[in-house]
Amino acid sequence: MTEQKQEAREQWNYEELSEVLEEVKKEGYDKVALQGPDGIKDELITYADKLRNEGIEPVMIGASTFGACGIADEKAERMGAEALIHVGHTRFLHPEGADMDDFNVYYLPYREDREIMPTLREHYEEIEEETVGLVGVTQYMDRAEEAREFLEEKGYEVVEGKTGLRTTEPGQVLGCDAGAAHNIAEKVDAFVFLGSGHFHPSQVSETGEKVYVVDPYEEHIWVEPANSLDDETRAEHARVIKHKDKKKWGIVTSSKKGQNYRRAVQIAKEKLEKHGKDVYVFVEDRIFEPDYKGYGIDVYVNCACPRMTKDWQDLAFVSPDALSVLDEVEIEHE
Ligand code: SF4
Questions:
Q1: Which tens digits make up the pLDDT trace of 300-332?
Q2: Distance (Å) from CA 69 to ligand 1 centroid
Q3: Cα(118) to centroid of ligand 1, in Å?
Q4: N or C, which terminus of the chain has less Cβ within 10 Å?
C-alpha cells in the first residue's frame, strides 16, 4: 500500500471512528470493547489507543470475526465493558428475529481503500446485457453510486439492489444473504458485483443470472456463471444419501448471536425424527470438525453460518435444505 493510500485509509477510518468516539463519550462509558476481522487487527490496536487517550479503557476481543453475526456482546459484558465497537461490518439483522440490539454495539463498517472504479472503467464493455442489477460487499458499497452513474452514462440501465433479510445497506450482499439481488432479479438480465472472490458472487448467481464481478484484486471483470452453487448442492444431496441409513444424526448451531438458529434447529430435528432418527443438538461458538469426532455420529446438519465450509474431512456436514432428499429415498436403519 502506498503511503498516500495508507494515509487516506487512516483518515477515512479515523473520521468514522471519531463519530463513534463522540457517541461513546456522550454516553459516559468507562470501558469499551473492540472487535474486528483479520486484516485490520493493527488498526484495532490504534483504535484502542485512541479510546485510552479519551480516558476510556479498551478491552480487545481476541478472536477475529467473519461478520456482524458474531458480535461479542457477551464477552464484552463479562469483562465489564458497557459497549462494543464492532469494526468491519454493518449491523446484522437476525432472520429469526433474535434481538441483536440488547447491548450497546457501535458498527464501524470497513471500506476497502483499494480502487475499484478504474477496473470498471477499463473493462465495462465486457458487460453484454443492457439491464443490470448493482450489488456488492460492504467494503465497496460506498462506491456503488459512482459505479451506477458511470454505467448509466455508458448506456446501461442500472437497477439498484434492495436490502436483504440480514442486511442494512441497499445492494449489500453477505455470504448468507443475497436477498439484495433476489429482490430485483426479475427486473435485470445480469448482475454487476463490486468485490472479489467466488464466495459472495456464487450466492448472487443463485438468482439464475450471470454475475459480472468487478474485481479490484484481479483488476478485471470476470463472470460467475448463473447457478454456480448447483454442484455444491448436488454434492450435499449425495452426502445425505450416503448417510440416509444412519440412526444417529447431529445438528450443530452456534452460540454466536447471529448464527444461532433455534427455529431452523427445531425444523431440522422434526424432519429427522419423522424419518426415525435419533437427533442430538450441539452448540458451540466456532464450529470445527475435530470437536464433533468421538460422539459416534457420522453426519451433522449445519444450523449455524449457512456458508460454513461443507468439506469436512471425515464427517459429513450438510445443510438443512439437503434433508429434503430423505423424503425421496427408502431408509433402512443400520
Ligand atoms: S455468511 Fe456466515 S459469517 Fe458471513 S455474515 Fe452470514 S452467518 Fe455471518
A1: 999 999 888 777 899 999 999 999 999 998 888
A2: 6
A3: 29
A4: C
pLDDT tens track for 254-266: 999 999 999 999 9
Q: Is the CB of 179 under 6 A from ligand 1?
A: no
- Pairing mode, if any, of strands 131-136 and 190-194? parallel
Q: Using a 6 Å cutoff on CB, does residue 175 contact ligand 1?
A: yes
Q: What superfamily would CATH give domain 230-328?
A: Diphthamide synthesis DPH1/DPH2 domain 3 (3.40.50.11860)
Mutate to test the pocket of ligand 1, among 305, 308, 309 (most ligand atoms within 8 A of CB): 305
Mutate which of 259, 261, 285, 287 for ligand 1? The one with the most ligand atoms within 8 Å of its CB, which is 259
Instruction: Give mean pLDDT, residues 219-228.
Output: 96
Range 117-224 has CATH code 1.10.3300.10: no
Separation of alpha carbons 89 and 72, rounded Å: 13
Provide DSSP, 129-194: -SEEEEEE-HHHHTTHHHHHHHHHHTT-EEEE----SS--STTB-BTTB-HHHHTTGGG-SEEEEE
Which residue ranges make up each domain of the chain?
3-109, 117-224, 230-328
Top-tier CATH class for 3-109:
alpha beta
Task: Classify residue 38 as exposed, middle or buried by CB count within 10 Å of its CB (0-12, 13-18, 19+).
Answer: exposed
Atom of ligand 1 nearest to the CA of 66: 3
Per CATH, 3-109 and 117-224 having the same topology is answered yes
How large a percentage of the chain has pLDDT more than 90? 76
The CB of 261 under 6 Å from ligand 1? The reply is: no
Q: Tell me how far apart the alpha carbons of residues 253 and 218 are, in angstroms, rounded to a whole number.
A: 35
Q: What is the pLDDT of residues 139-157, one digit of tens each?
A: 999 999 999 999 999 999 9
Closest residue by Cα to atom 5, ligand 1, is 67
